[in-house]
From TrEMBL:
InterPro entries: Class_I_gatase-like, Prot/Nucl_acid_deglycase
Assigned keywords, A-Z: Glutamine amidotransferase, Lyase, Stress response
Residues annotated as transmembrane: none
Domain of life where this protein originates: Bacteria
Descriptive protein name: Type 1 glutamine amidotransferase domain-containing protein
Gene3D superfamilies, per database record: 3.40.50.880
Upper taxonomic lineage: Bacteria, Bacillati, Actinomycetota, Actinomycetes, Kitasatosporales
Family named by the database record: Belongs to the peptidase C56 family. HSP31-like subfamily.
Protein backbone atom coordinates (compact mmCIF):
# COMPACT_ATOMS: atom_id res chain seq x y z
CA UNK A 1 0.00 0.00 0.00
CA UNK A 2 1.34 3.43 -0.90
CA UNK A 3 0.49 6.18 1.56
CA UNK A 4 1.29 9.87 1.24
CA UNK A 5 4.41 11.52 2.61
CA UNK A 6 4.92 15.16 3.46
CA UNK A 7 7.62 15.67 0.83
CA UNK A 8 5.52 15.47 -2.33
CA UNK A 9 2.09 16.55 -3.53
CA UNK A 10 -0.43 13.75 -3.23
CA UNK A 11 -2.82 11.96 -5.58
CA UNK A 12 -5.37 9.26 -4.88
CA UNK A 13 -5.97 6.43 -7.37
CA UNK A 14 -9.18 4.44 -6.85
CA UNK A 15 -9.17 1.26 -8.94
CA UNK A 16 -12.34 -0.79 -9.53
CA UNK A 17 -11.78 -4.35 -8.34
CA UNK A 18 -14.79 -6.35 -9.55
CA UNK A 19 -13.69 -9.55 -11.29
CA UNK A 20 -16.99 -10.66 -12.87
CA UNK A 21 -19.37 -8.65 -15.06
CA UNK A 22 -22.95 -9.96 -14.78
CA UNK A 23 -24.92 -10.46 -17.99
CA UNK A 24 -28.69 -10.35 -18.40
CA UNK A 25 -28.40 -12.25 -21.69
CA UNK A 26 -27.83 -15.08 -22.41
CA UNK A 27 -30.26 -16.09 -19.68
CA UNK A 28 -28.60 -17.84 -16.79
CA UNK A 29 -25.08 -16.85 -17.83
CA UNK A 30 -22.71 -16.70 -14.81
CA UNK A 31 -21.05 -13.50 -16.03
CA UNK A 32 -17.75 -12.83 -17.76
CA UNK A 33 -14.30 -12.29 -16.33
CA UNK A 34 -13.46 -8.60 -16.17
CA UNK A 35 -11.24 -6.02 -14.48
CA UNK A 36 -9.75 -2.55 -14.87
CA UNK A 37 -8.05 -1.03 -17.91
CA UNK A 38 -4.40 -0.29 -17.19
CA UNK A 39 -4.12 2.03 -20.18
CA UNK A 40 -6.66 4.38 -18.55
CA UNK A 41 -4.43 4.79 -15.51
CA UNK A 42 -0.84 4.28 -16.68
CA UNK A 43 -0.55 7.59 -18.51
CA UNK A 44 -1.52 9.39 -15.30
CA UNK A 45 1.12 7.43 -13.38
CA UNK A 46 3.70 8.26 -16.04
CA UNK A 47 2.82 11.96 -16.19
CA UNK A 48 2.76 12.58 -12.45
CA UNK A 49 4.89 9.78 -11.00
CA UNK A 50 8.12 11.75 -10.67
CA UNK A 51 6.54 14.49 -8.61
CA UNK A 52 3.52 12.95 -6.86
CA UNK A 53 3.06 10.45 -4.08
CA UNK A 54 0.22 8.07 -4.93
CA UNK A 55 -2.21 6.36 -2.59
CA UNK A 56 -4.00 3.37 -4.10
CA UNK A 57 -7.43 2.18 -3.01
CA UNK A 58 -10.18 -0.11 -4.26
CA UNK A 59 -13.86 -0.14 -3.27
CA UNK A 60 -13.50 -3.04 -0.85
CA UNK A 61 -9.77 -2.94 -0.23
CA UNK A 62 -9.11 -6.06 -2.31
CA UNK A 63 -6.48 -6.47 -5.00
CA UNK A 64 -7.88 -5.29 -8.37
CA UNK A 65 -7.96 -7.56 -11.40
CA UNK A 66 -6.19 -6.49 -14.58
CA UNK A 67 -8.43 -6.71 -17.66
CA UNK A 68 -6.50 -8.59 -20.34
CA UNK A 69 -8.73 -7.25 -23.11
CA UNK A 70 -7.70 -3.72 -22.18
CA UNK A 71 -4.13 -4.59 -23.16
CA UNK A 72 -4.81 -5.10 -26.85
CA UNK A 73 -2.28 -3.10 -28.86
CA UNK A 74 -4.93 -0.82 -30.46
CA UNK A 75 -5.87 0.34 -26.95
CA UNK A 76 -2.45 1.98 -26.73
CA UNK A 77 -2.84 4.05 -29.88
CA UNK A 78 -4.50 7.00 -28.14
CA UNK A 79 -6.66 9.10 -30.43
CA UNK A 80 -5.71 6.81 -33.35
CA UNK A 81 -7.11 3.71 -31.65
CA UNK A 82 -10.06 3.46 -34.06
CA UNK A 83 -7.80 3.07 -37.08
CA UNK A 84 -5.47 0.80 -35.11
CA UNK A 85 -8.42 -1.43 -34.19
CA UNK A 86 -9.47 -1.79 -37.84
CA UNK A 87 -5.92 -2.68 -38.83
CA UNK A 88 -5.51 -5.19 -36.01
CA UNK A 89 -8.83 -6.89 -36.72
CA UNK A 90 -7.94 -7.31 -40.38
CA UNK A 91 -4.50 -8.68 -39.51
CA UNK A 92 -6.00 -11.33 -37.22
CA UNK A 93 -8.82 -12.42 -39.50
CA UNK A 94 -6.95 -15.21 -41.28
CA UNK A 95 -3.44 -16.53 -40.76
CA UNK A 96 -2.08 -14.99 -37.59
CA UNK A 97 1.52 -14.92 -36.40
CA UNK A 98 1.99 -13.05 -33.14
CA UNK A 99 5.63 -12.12 -33.77
CA UNK A 100 4.84 -10.62 -37.18
CA UNK A 101 1.83 -8.81 -35.73
CA UNK A 102 3.91 -7.22 -32.99
CA UNK A 103 6.84 -6.43 -35.27
CA UNK A 104 4.57 -4.28 -37.42
CA UNK A 105 3.44 -2.28 -34.37
CA UNK A 106 6.67 -1.49 -32.46
CA UNK A 107 5.50 1.82 -30.99
CA UNK A 108 2.38 0.25 -29.52
CA UNK A 109 4.35 -2.69 -28.12
CA UNK A 110 6.83 -0.27 -26.55
CA UNK A 111 4.10 1.80 -24.96
CA UNK A 112 2.36 -1.26 -23.55
CA UNK A 113 5.63 -2.62 -22.17
CA UNK A 114 6.33 0.68 -20.43
CA UNK A 115 2.83 0.77 -18.96
CA UNK A 116 3.12 -2.80 -17.71
CA UNK A 117 6.41 -1.80 -16.07
CA UNK A 118 4.54 0.97 -14.26
CA UNK A 119 1.95 -1.56 -13.10
CA UNK A 120 4.69 -3.85 -11.81
CA UNK A 121 6.25 -0.95 -9.91
CA UNK A 122 3.14 0.59 -8.40
CA UNK A 123 0.68 -2.33 -8.15
CA UNK A 124 2.81 -5.46 -7.80
CA UNK A 125 1.33 -8.86 -8.54
CA UNK A 126 -2.20 -8.72 -9.92
CA UNK A 127 -4.75 -11.30 -10.95
CA UNK A 128 -5.50 -11.19 -14.68
CA UNK A 129 -8.93 -11.64 -16.23
CA UNK A 130 -9.62 -14.72 -18.33
CA UNK A 131 -9.40 -14.64 -22.10
CA UNK A 132 -12.86 -14.69 -23.66
CA UNK A 133 -14.08 -16.49 -26.81
CA UNK A 134 -13.79 -13.30 -28.86
CA UNK A 135 -10.66 -11.89 -27.25
CA UNK A 136 -7.97 -10.36 -29.44
CA UNK A 137 -5.64 -13.19 -30.54
CA UNK A 138 -2.53 -11.27 -29.56
CA UNK A 139 -3.66 -10.69 -25.97
CA UNK A 140 -4.54 -14.38 -25.61
CA UNK A 141 -0.84 -15.05 -26.22
CA UNK A 142 0.15 -12.15 -23.98
CA UNK A 143 -1.84 -13.39 -20.99
CA UNK A 144 0.40 -16.34 -20.07
CA UNK A 145 3.56 -14.24 -20.45
CA UNK A 146 2.04 -11.48 -18.35
CA UNK A 147 1.14 -13.81 -15.50
CA UNK A 148 4.67 -15.25 -15.53
CA UNK A 149 6.17 -11.75 -15.44
CA UNK A 150 4.29 -10.97 -12.23
CA UNK A 151 4.64 -14.23 -10.34
CA UNK A 152 7.66 -13.08 -8.31
CA UNK A 153 6.29 -9.60 -7.58
CA UNK A 154 4.93 -8.78 -4.12
CA UNK A 155 1.17 -8.53 -3.70
CA UNK A 156 0.36 -5.04 -2.50
CA UNK A 157 -2.40 -4.06 -0.08
CA UNK A 158 -5.05 -1.44 -0.80
CA UNK A 159 -7.14 0.81 1.38
CA UNK A 160 -10.89 0.44 0.99
CA UNK A 161 -13.07 3.47 0.27
CA UNK A 162 -14.66 3.05 3.69
CA UNK A 163 -11.21 3.14 5.29
CA UNK A 164 -10.37 6.34 3.41
CA UNK A 165 -13.45 8.03 4.84
CA UNK A 166 -12.96 6.69 8.37
CA UNK A 167 -9.32 7.75 8.48
CA UNK A 168 -10.22 11.21 7.19
CA UNK A 169 -12.79 11.57 9.97
CA UNK A 170 -10.54 10.25 12.74
CA UNK A 171 -9.11 13.26 14.62
CA UNK A 172 -6.18 11.13 15.80
CA UNK A 173 -5.21 10.09 12.27
CA UNK A 174 -3.07 12.48 10.21
CA UNK A 175 -4.60 11.14 6.98
CA UNK A 176 -6.50 13.92 5.21
CA UNK A 177 -8.48 13.54 1.98
CA UNK A 178 -8.16 17.28 1.52
CA UNK A 179 -4.40 16.86 1.13
CA UNK A 180 -4.84 15.22 -2.28
CA UNK A 181 -4.59 17.39 -5.38
CA UNK A 182 -6.64 14.94 -7.41
CA UNK A 183 -8.25 11.53 -7.52
CA UNK A 184 -8.17 9.45 -10.68
CA UNK A 185 -10.36 6.42 -11.38
CA UNK A 186 -9.79 4.21 -14.45
CA UNK A 187 -12.43 2.20 -16.26
CA UNK A 188 -12.78 -1.20 -17.80
CA UNK A 189 -16.11 -2.90 -17.13
CA UNK A 190 -15.35 -3.43 -13.42
CA UNK A 191 -16.83 -0.03 -12.36
CA UNK A 192 -20.24 -1.22 -13.59
CA UNK A 193 -20.21 -3.59 -10.62
CA UNK A 194 -18.47 -1.89 -7.68
CA UNK A 195 -18.70 1.83 -8.47
CA UNK A 196 -22.49 1.84 -8.70
CA UNK A 197 -24.92 1.91 -5.73
CA UNK A 198 -21.96 2.33 -3.41
CA UNK A 199 -22.74 4.63 -0.46
CA UNK A 200 -19.13 4.88 0.69
CA UNK A 201 -18.09 5.95 -2.80
CA UNK A 202 -20.79 8.61 -2.68
CA UNK A 203 -19.44 9.85 0.63
CA UNK A 204 -15.91 9.85 -0.75
CA UNK A 205 -16.92 11.89 -3.81
CA UNK A 206 -18.67 14.50 -1.70
CA UNK A 207 -15.81 14.72 0.78
CA UNK A 208 -13.36 15.26 -2.06
CA UNK A 209 -15.63 17.91 -3.59
CA UNK A 210 -15.98 19.71 -0.28
CA UNK A 211 -12.19 19.80 -0.02
CA UNK A 212 -11.72 21.10 -3.60
CA UNK A 213 -10.01 17.89 -4.79
CA UNK A 214 -10.17 17.46 -8.56
CA UNK A 215 -12.10 14.31 -9.53
CA UNK A 216 -10.86 12.57 -12.70
CA UNK A 217 -12.92 9.74 -14.25
CA UNK A 218 -12.52 7.98 -17.59
CA UNK A 219 -14.57 5.60 -19.76
CA UNK A 220 -16.74 3.41 -17.46
CA UNK A 221 -15.52 5.08 -14.26
CA UNK A 222 -18.02 8.01 -14.49
CA UNK A 223 -20.72 5.55 -13.37
CA UNK A 224 -19.30 6.40 -9.93
CA UNK A 225 -21.36 9.58 -10.13
CA UNK A 226 -24.54 7.50 -9.85
CA UNK A 227 -23.42 6.81 -6.26
CA UNK A 228 -23.29 10.53 -5.44
CA UNK A 229 -26.92 10.38 -4.30
CA UNK A 230 -25.61 8.75 -1.12
CA UNK A 231 -23.95 10.17 1.98
CA UNK A 232 -22.86 8.20 5.03
CA UNK A 233 -23.19 10.01 8.34
CA UNK A 234 -20.66 9.76 11.20
CA UNK A 235 -22.68 6.90 12.72
CA UNK A 236 -22.56 4.85 9.52
CA UNK A 237 -26.15 5.49 8.50
CA UNK A 238 -26.74 5.86 4.77
CA UNK A 239 -28.65 8.98 3.73
CA UNK A 240 -30.05 9.42 0.22
CA UNK A 241 -30.14 12.94 -1.20
CA UNK A 242 -31.81 13.13 -4.65
CA UNK A 243 -30.81 16.82 -4.95
CA UNK A 244 -27.14 16.40 -4.12
CA UNK A 245 -24.46 18.91 -5.19
CA UNK A 246 -23.28 16.94 -8.24
CA UNK A 247 -26.73 16.55 -9.76
CA UNK A 248 -27.07 18.23 -13.14
CA UNK A 249 -23.34 18.26 -13.82
CA UNK A 250 -22.12 17.72 -17.37
CA UNK A 251 -20.29 14.42 -17.86
CA UNK A 252 -19.16 12.14 -20.64
CA UNK A 253 -18.59 8.40 -20.67
CA UNK A 254 -18.50 5.42 -22.99
CA UNK A 255 -21.47 5.69 -25.35
CA UNK A 256 -24.15 3.04 -25.72
CA UNK A 257 -23.15 2.63 -29.38
CA UNK A 258 -19.62 1.69 -28.34
CA UNK A 259 -20.92 -0.81 -25.81
CA UNK A 260 -23.22 -2.40 -28.37
CA UNK A 261 -20.24 -2.86 -30.69
CA UNK A 262 -18.24 -4.61 -27.95
CA UNK A 263 -21.24 -6.83 -27.16
CA UNK A 264 -21.95 -7.75 -30.78
CA UNK A 265 -18.50 -7.75 -32.38
CA UNK A 266 -15.89 -7.13 -29.71
CA UNK A 267 -14.43 -9.19 -26.89
CA UNK A 268 -17.71 -9.52 -24.97
CA UNK A 269 -19.37 -11.27 -27.90
CA UNK A 270 -20.41 -14.85 -27.19
CA UNK A 271 -20.59 -16.73 -30.51
CA UNK A 272 -24.15 -17.51 -31.52
CA UNK A 273 -25.71 -15.59 -28.60
CA UNK A 274 -27.21 -12.19 -27.99
CA UNK A 275 -25.21 -10.57 -25.20
CA UNK A 276 -26.49 -7.82 -22.91
CA UNK A 277 -25.34 -6.25 -19.65
CA UNK A 278 -27.71 -4.98 -16.99
CA UNK A 279 -27.54 -1.36 -18.15
CA UNK A 280 -25.68 1.16 -20.29
CA UNK A 281 -23.65 3.76 -18.43
CA UNK A 282 -24.72 6.80 -20.45
CA UNK A 283 -28.39 5.93 -19.88
CA UNK A 284 -27.82 5.26 -16.17
CA UNK A 285 -26.13 8.63 -15.73
CA UNK A 286 -28.98 10.40 -17.51
CA UNK A 287 -31.43 8.63 -15.22
CA UNK A 288 -29.33 9.79 -12.25
CA UNK A 289 -29.80 13.42 -13.28
CA UNK A 290 -26.62 14.22 -15.18
CA UNK A 291 -26.24 16.01 -18.51
CA UNK A 292 -24.45 13.31 -20.50
CA UNK A 293 -22.50 14.34 -23.59
CA UNK A 294 -21.32 11.64 -25.99
CA UNK A 295 -20.07 11.53 -29.58
CA UNK A 296 -21.78 10.09 -32.65
CA UNK A 297 -18.44 8.47 -33.52
CA UNK A 298 -17.40 6.28 -30.56
CA UNK A 299 -13.75 6.58 -31.63
CA UNK A 300 -13.81 10.38 -31.30
CA UNK A 301 -12.25 11.82 -28.14
CA UNK A 302 -14.63 13.60 -25.77
CA UNK A 303 -13.54 15.38 -22.59
CA UNK A 304 -15.81 17.36 -20.29
CA UNK A 305 -14.70 19.64 -17.44
CA UNK A 306 -17.35 20.77 -14.96
CA UNK A 307 -15.73 23.61 -13.07
CA UNK A 308 -18.34 23.98 -10.33
CA UNK A 309 -17.72 20.52 -8.89
CA UNK A 310 -14.15 20.09 -10.24
CA UNK A 311 -15.13 17.01 -12.25
CA UNK A 312 -13.14 15.86 -15.30
CA UNK A 313 -14.56 13.03 -17.40
CA UNK A 314 -13.65 11.46 -20.73
CA UNK A 315 -15.05 8.72 -22.88
CA UNK A 316 -12.55 5.91 -23.27
CA UNK A 317 -8.96 4.65 -23.54
CA UNK A 318 -8.54 6.61 -26.77
CA UNK A 319 -8.98 9.80 -24.70
CA UNK A 320 -6.37 9.07 -22.03
CA UNK A 321 -3.56 11.17 -23.52
CA UNK A 322 -5.72 14.26 -23.93
CA UNK A 323 -7.40 13.56 -20.59
CA UNK A 324 -4.03 13.48 -18.80
CA UNK A 325 -2.84 16.64 -20.54
CA UNK A 326 -6.05 18.41 -19.50
CA UNK A 327 -5.58 17.16 -15.94
CA UNK A 328 -2.10 18.66 -15.92
CA UNK A 329 -3.39 22.00 -17.18
CA UNK A 330 -6.19 22.13 -14.62
CA UNK A 331 -3.85 21.31 -11.74
CA UNK A 332 -1.48 24.07 -12.84
CA UNK A 333 -4.27 26.59 -12.27
CA UNK A 334 -4.49 25.86 -8.56
Amino acid sequence: MNTPTASKPKALIVIPSAAVLPLTEPAGHPGVSTGFYLVEMAQVLKEFGDEYEFTFATPGGIVPQLEINGLGLPMHAGAKSGAAMVSATAAQAFRFDVDTFRAKRPELVSRRDSELALAHHYLGRLPVSESLPNSDKEVVVLRDDLIKSMQDLPEHTYLSIEQLVHRHRDPEDTFDLGAFDFVHMPGGHAPMVDFVDNPWLGELLHTLRENQVLISLICHAPIAMASAKYRVDPHGAVVTDPEHAFKGARVTTVAKSAELFVLSSGYLKIPGKKVRMGYFIDEALKDAGYHVQTTANPAAVKIVWEEGVRLLTSNGPHAIDEHTARLRTLLARR
